[in-house]
Amino acid sequence: MRLQAPNRHSIHDRVRYYQVESVSAGSSPPCDKDSSALLAFRGISISELKNHSVLQALTAEANAWEPRVVSTEVLQAQEEWEAVESIHPETGSRASMDQPGQLISFSEALQHFQTVDLSSFKKRIQPTIRRTGLAALRHYLFGPPKLHQGLREERDLVLTIAQCGLDSQDPMHGRVLQTIYKKLTGSKFDCALHGDHWEDLGFQGTNPATDLRGAGFLALLHLLYLVMDSKTLLMAREILRLSRHHIQQFPFCLMSVNITRIAIQALREECLSRECNRQQKVIPVVNSFYAATFLRLAHVWRTQHKTISDSGFVLKDLEMSAKKSPRRLLKTLETYLAGVSKGQGSLLGTQKCSGPQAPHSKDLTFTGVCDLPSHLSEGTWLI
Asked: The ELMO domain covers which part of the protein (predicted)?
């Protein structure tokens, strides 16, 4: 005999209903006490809980519901639950990181580049820009301080990664792409490394590798950094929402690549040297500068009602202001993230970003910092 599920019920009611249903085939009926409703879970290891039919039934309805704004607490809980599914019940250790479908952290991806031979790519970098004449004298007298000697190897690693392209045959590269896709979309399933779904995220084509000009794999590492922290993930999803506005749409990932280019140029022009020297780190400063610049762009885009036709000039103005006052920009990011931690940070506020379906990125005329006329763009973007 099957019981009719109640329309309104607490979680204990739901557990009790599904437990009775599961024992109706011959098992003894449940006790009246609430604690007896949990007997079905006794003897089940933590790693097997998510495969239990009761929990699957309880979560099936919740998976179809999407809140308008996801709190950092929900994102953190989701990350903890995802960690459970990568534990082997027989050993209690994490599954091999070489298995497909597993997320990759920023630190793990960075460690990969720290351990492989990048000598052929390192030969191509130019750590600082060359200045001559009055420009060199002005920079010497009034420019930012030089980067400390002990930090230059870390700076060179950042610039070397920017010389590396995306290799779809490298498992680590594939995991970075999969992680970015899953975190931005909320999908639990792997996706193809080539396909229209990348256009939905704001690449201009079906192959993300074709959009990394001037930023290389560093552009993907920056996206990975953005989505693997619960606070910056909330920011990334808000910017993605803005990029799909029916009037103000822009290609999200392609815009991110351009922000990475600005960060690279700021590093080469020594605009970040003072902050790097203060923190005695390079990579965290570059990452934060990237995130802060992206946040600033989204704020300008939303409040000044920019559209895709403004993209090149917005990026150029953003580059100039970011390089001029990087510390102020970083403070803005700190304030925003502090508000997110308290549940108060909101980039879009109550702005409605819904409307007619935004066109694919390939249908948008996007002007990046590399595409501006030569008289409006400084430097050659040689990394």
From this structure: 172-326
CA dihedral 208→211→214→215, nearest 10 degrees, is -30
Residues 207 and 221: their CA atoms lie apart, in Å, by 17
Query: Which of 191, 196, 306, 303 shows the shortest CA–CA distance to 255?
Result: 306
Residue 135 identity: A
Residue pair 290/263 in contact (Cβ under 8 Å)? The answer is yes
What local confidence, expressed as pLDDT, does residue 108 receive?
Answer: 97
User: Are residues 163 and 121 in contact, defined by beta-carbon separation less than 8 angstroms?
Assistant: yes
Give the span between the Cα atoms of 234 and 240, in whole angstroms. 10
**Crossing angle of helices 152-161/106-115, nearest 10°?**
100
- pLDDT digit string, tens, across residues 10-58: 444 544 444 444 444 444 444 454 555 555 555 565 556 556 665 565 5
Q: Are 212 and 323 in contact (CB under 8 A)?
A: no
Classify burial at 48, counting beta carbons within 10 Å of its beta carbon; exposed 0-12, middle 13-18, buried 19 or more.
middle
The neighbour count for residue 170, using CB atoms within 10 Å, is: 14
Between 199 and 56, name the one with better pLDDT.
Answer: 199
Instruction: Kindly report the pTM of this predicted structure.
Output: 0.69
Burial class (CB in 10 A: 0-12, 13-18, 19+), 140: exposed
The C-alpha angle 88, 92, 98, rounded to 5 degrees, equals: 50
